[in-house]
Amino acid sequence: MDRMSTLRKPRRLSYSEYLDLERDSDTKHELVAGYVYAMAGASEAHNRISGNIFFHLRAAARGGPCGVFMADMKIRIEEQDRAYYPDLSVVCDPADKDPYVKRSPCILVEVVSTSTESTDRREKLAAYLTIPSLRYYMLASSMDRQVECFARDDSGDWVSRNLEEGESLIVRCSDVSAELDLELIYEDVLIPEIGGEE
Prior knowledge:
Blueprint: H1 15-24, E1 29-32, E2 35-38, H2 44-61, E3 67-69, E4 74-77, E5 82-84, E6 88-91, E7 101-102, E8 105-112, H3 117-128, E9 136-141, E10 147-152, E11 158-163, E12 169-173, E13 176-180, H4 182-185
Parallel strand pairs: 4-7, 8-9
Antiparallel strand pairs: 1-2, 1-5, 3-6, 4-5, 6-8, 9-10, 10-11, 12-13
């Protein structure tokens, strides 16, 4: 018997089937055009970087209409049938009320590792930049002190820049205005040796 004939083709899931799977699963999955992909755990550096950015964005959002969410909040991109768990999101749209899924983020952040870099810099970049409400997409490396930010300008075009030592990045969404620099983002973060993995 041909061994290949025993392999099962993965079944595509509808969005509602995906939500049912997530409700009953101990592992988080992302949805890409009907196919689900399990997510791996994260390193200490990853968690500290996410926590540092969350701390400053949450402080800027306190008392206002914007919500700042960690990695358990899904972002739905309807047109591409995708649902991702970004490491951090800021949502200011009062109509975006679903307690488990948001559709109108204005800031998305991914903390990049060797295992996620290709997905974060290609697949997710292309998908996130199609979200009409999005103003900023930040990629913070857990492998070195490097942050790249894509920002939508007043004409709707995307401009990217790398945050350099001594520089600040100001992000503004609705009532949120936060100033971030490499010292704040990488506070108490020990970057692993080259070859370290999340």
